Amino acid sequence: MLSRLRWFALLTRCFCCTLLLFLLEGALSAQATTAAPATPIDAKKAELGGRTWDPEWDQIVENAVPQGMLSSQVPHDVRRFCPRFYTMSDTDKRAFWAYFFHALAGAEAGLNPTTRVRHTEPAVARIDGVTKRAVRSEGLLQLTSEDQKRYGCAFDWDKDKQLDAHDPARTILQPRNNLECGVKILAKQIIVDHKPLLSSSGYWSTLQPARSSYRIFAKEMTNPPAACGLAKPASAPVGATTVRVHEDAKSNEEAKKRMDPTKP
User: Fold this and answer.
1) Do 175 and 57 touch, CB atoms closer than 8 A?
2) What is the DSSP letter of 78?
3) What is the pLDDT of residues 130-177, one digit of tens each?
């Protein structure tokens, strides 16, 4: 009897250890991230000294991406920007989505977290089949306060309305809140609602091919992660990450100062 109890205790202990290792491996795998490449607009802005993409925003997106956006449920038009999407590792897929939202923020807000636009045209303000006569789009991904209820985003209108319209402390303008909300919106579109990535009824006009603004987004999607296997134009900052772009811009600026000591 004692021997059986010992064997049972040993088996239980082994099972618990195996389960713990499995969960730990899964957690580590889910959090595995890599640096996403720089988009053309980010490279240009770094060169000119404009507002650029913060590398930490890549991490926010990569950690927010749900499992469904790493699976075969992702609609096939993703291959327009990432031909090898379905055969890539989850880490590379997360990097692709970080690049995707980087490009979207460039097309929507010029990478400026405090950008606000007031839309009055019904076609522009149509969201999930509901026409809004006056909508304020805000932040990196040009979202609205109404998205808090619609998608469960971390926006607080009661707090935001007490602050200046462009105050970065407003919850809707905080990059983490804005980007995490954007991931939720896209996940609902392509995973829950089974719509294409590029849809005429999608949330963002920049992801609607019939719109002129789509061309801006398409230009930003020319430098996805190398794992995507997309042929890149000569003008794309091939192989450069946002971090590298910033480092090069800083190095160039320091070189200019050395050549002209009169500059501050």
Assistant:
1) yes
2) G
3) 444 457 899 999 999 999 999 999 999 999 999 999 999 999 999 999
Read off the pLDDT of each residue in 222-250 and give the average, rounded to a whole number.
76
Q: What is the rounded distance in angstroms from the CA atom of residue 234 to the CA atom of residue 129? A: 40
CA distance 123 to 133: 9
Range of the domain at 185: 29-259
Number of domains in the chain: 1
| Phi then psi dihedrals of residue 78, to 5 deg | -65, -25
Q: Where are the alpha helices (DSSP H) in 115-264?
A: 147-151, 157-160, 175-187, 214-220, 242-259
Which residue carries 């957690």 as its tokens?
27
Does residue 3 lie within any of the structural domains?
Answer: no
- Please count the residues of the chain: 264
Question: Residues 160, 144: contact at Cβ < 8 Å?
Answer: no
| φ and ψ of 54, to 5 deg | -85, 125
The pTM (predicted TM-score) of the whole model is 0.78
- The model's pLDDT over 33-76, given as tens digits with 9 standing for 90+, comes to 677 888 888 888 777 777 789 999 999 999 999 999 999 999 99
Considering the domain boundaries, does residue 1 fall inside one? no
Cα(202)–Cα(190) distance, rounded to whole angstroms? 9
Q: Is residue 128 part of a domain?
A: yes
In a domain, 236, yes or no: yes
Q: How many CB atoms lie within 10 A of CB 153?
A: 23
